[in-house]
From TrEMBL:
GO cellular component: plasma membrane; side of membrane
Family: Belongs to the early nodulin-like (ENODL) family.
The entry's keywords: Cell membrane, Disulfide bond, Glycoprotein, GPI-anchor, Lipoprotein, Membrane, Signal
Domain Phytocyanin: 35-136
Broad class of where this protein is predominantly found: membrane
Protein name (record): Mavicyanin-like
CDD domains, per database record: OsENODL1_like
Coiled coil: none
Family annotation (InterPro entries): Cupredoxin, ENL_dom, Phytocyanin-like, Phytocyanin_dom
PROSITE patterns: PHYTOCYANIN
Keyword Iron-sulfur (UniProt): no
Amino acid sequence: MILTTLAKTTMASPFSKLQVFLLSFLIHIYIAICAEFEVNGDNGWISPKHDDQIYNKWAASNRFKVNDTIHFTYKKDSVLVVTEEEYDKCQPSHPQFFSNNGDTVFKLDRPGLFYFISGVTGHCQKGQKMIIKVLEPASPPQQSQNMNSTYNTPETKKNGAVEVAAVTSSTIMLLLISAFC
């Protein structure tokens, strides 16, 4: 019964298996490549009332990668990217980035630390500042030196482990979805 229903919906679908697979694959790749983070969730980029570490706590609870974006929403404020010294003193002299349009998207284009502060007088001192650490990109896997050249098969290591290719659960799900479409 379920297979008959699935077959009817599959045959009635205007999309081919290849189209569905490619769409699923592209969505998977996009999600794996980058993400956009809303600074402080629905509250946005505001001067803290009670917790002067709210933004650093938020940043510490996330994992940022190169090419992720940070989305700041605010009213009558600004976002500056500054040096560590300017961050510590809350005194921007030559910001690396400045925006005051109320809807700022900043791309994290390198690994390392980014220092954000508000440009409104007094806001940084009240805690409207944040440090974001962007992780180093994962290095590509090294070609295994443990391949047995005679048979071109993985070599068993001393502890009995065998090197095998890893397949993620999301790859398996994509294959299953494409098989039924």
